[in-house]
Specification:
48 residues; alpha+beta
């Protein structure tokens, strides 16, 4: 039986509170969430 993965969302921003609030809401809505503080970090996270 194949398990369906949750959709993945990448949030990029330099405001920690913004990242955390949105991460929490999206995870509660059923998404996997990756956050990054800047564009370079976002690119590194997507390569993982």
């Amino acid at each position: 039986m194949a398990t369906q993965q949750k959709p993945l969302v990448l949030i990029v921003g330099d405001d920690y509170d913004f990242l955390e609030i949105n991460r929490i809401h999206l995870e509660q809505a059923g998404y996997r969430v990756v956050t990054a503080a800047d564009p370079e970090a976002a690119l590194r996270r997507m390569e993982e």
